[in-house]
Write a structure and sequence with these properties.
The protein is an alpha/beta fold and 179 residues long. It has a single domain, classed as Collagenase (Catalytic Domain). Helix content is 20%, strand content 22%. It has 3 helices and 8 strands, in the order ββαββββββαα. The strands form 2 sheets. Strands 1, 2, 3, 4, 5 and 6 form a 6-stranded mixed sheet that branches. A two-stranded parallel ribbon has the order 7-8. Helix 1 packs across helix 2. The chain binds zinc ion (2 copies).
Amino acid sequence: MTFETIPEYCFKRHSALVGIVVGWGQNKRKGGATRWEAVRAAMQQWNKVRDTKGKSIVSLYLTTGATDSRVIYSNYSFPKIGYTEHILRGDEILGATIHLASTEKWSVGYSPGCYDIQTVVLHELGHMLGVAHCHEDGSEPPCFSKTCESNVMNPYVSPGHIKRTFQEYDTASYIIIYD
Ligand SMILES: [Zn+2]
Ligand SMILES: [Zn+2]
């Protein structure tokens, strides 16, 4: 496949270990899973991606300690389900805040009219790690990526839609940053 990287997104992380605080409690949702576990599951998906030499790239983990990175519900005025705010030093990512819209309904797993936390956090963690959207250049979807609609890093998501499977676009775009 072909892919391109947008230079502004080619960040380098300083450390392979990233502790992330989740700004809400471990309250059980339908199905028994917690929102907290949904975030952890998304982290583990990125943790499993290996570089071209088969080595681990990053280790994201949940923490309650001091850290620059967090996932929180936020009330903001622009029409986005979630977004990621980096803390940068030059082109190095020191940390990031992942904002999820507090005005939307969230679920762990499929629920009509709700956004699946794991789906959206998986996408936002991609941004946290420096991965750009496909068709970031403003072109209309579907783009150069044959799997455009299925890409975790496709910029669109719908309520009640589960998209938790990495496509080659997602992992290749990630690996090239850290290679
Ligand atoms: Zn695309
Ligand atoms: Zn995005």
